[in-house]
Amino acid sequence: MLCGIAAQGQVYLPSDRFATPGTRFLYQSMQRLVGAGVIFGHHDDMAYGVGWRGDKDRSDIKSVTGSYPALYGWDLAGIERGSTVDINGIPFEQQRRYVQDVYARGGINTFCWHLTNPVNKRSAWDTTKNAVVQLLPGGAFHEAYVARLDKAAAYLKTLNGPDGEPIPILFRPFHELTGNWFWWGRNRCNADEFKTLWRFTINYLRNTKGLHNLLIVYSVADVTSEAEFMERYPGDDYADVVAFDSYCRDPKKFAATFEKCISITQTVADAHHKLSAVAETGYNLVPAADWWTKTLLPIVSRYNLSYLMVWRNAGLEQYFAPYPGQVSADDFKLFFKADETMFQNRISGFWVYGKYISQQ
Predict the structure, then answer these.
(1) Domains, the chain, ranges and CATH?
(2) pLDDT tens-place string over residues 194-218
(3) 244 near 219, Cβ under 8 Å?
């Protein structure tokens, strides 16, 4: 039985009142799925994995379970510098094809953006300059920031379906905003400055660049209170999903921290009529053979999360999903088969844009 938003008898529109028909339909479809199971995602899933890169129709998730994930994470980082490849070496031309393939099979695409520091052109992790205040209208680097938004918007406008329709994107800017490791972090600007930058960014992409296919994801790092979660929240007109990032670094503490974050996120989502999600999580190298069903599944099963995404499989030194033969692979198959999880095999055909057209 569906729970959460859908069970309350109300399905909410996106925060962008001019959202494209396909974007509205995706958002409403995701709401209807709440309570049917958590949508499972994987970053850069189709582009590379443990021991391979660029292979056609390949995915570590698919190799273990027989199905792709239902949600696919990508990164815009590099587009603002005019690079032909993203931060992880995926050519943007190829990334576009992956996004289109996902859309064609009824999957969901989400983008983060490890945006280089516009003040000194260093990485997103460079915090030597108080950049945010200088990017606001009237700031010394405002025009430089707008130029970066223009490049991102030009690329996003190329992400179209077979009939030229804009592919709906879950867009997650300034992620982990309550942390202190990015130039937009809480130790580099105050709450009002951050909210002003967020609102300007979304307004510019929507109203100036005409991108009405973006569902906006507000994603914090580990938080301990609702007040901390909401301190930098830009308002209901600028978010469609509320989420957090949290990784298993200390197995003894993870479950309590993770569940606390989910509880806070769910409370906020219910109060503001938004979807709730785990935007990033995982256990690097997944050394616990039963981590998926004994740690992760029991927690997410207690809440009405929309989706959960684990981070990328970069190689033997960094992977957050199992590959064939990995110690947790058998347990992951059980996780895949659980009623509380949804992979591509369970959502294909549920929301695809062609179904929306046929219902008009």
Answers:
(1) 4-358 (3.20.20.80)
(2) 999 999 999 999 999 999 999 999 9
(3) yes
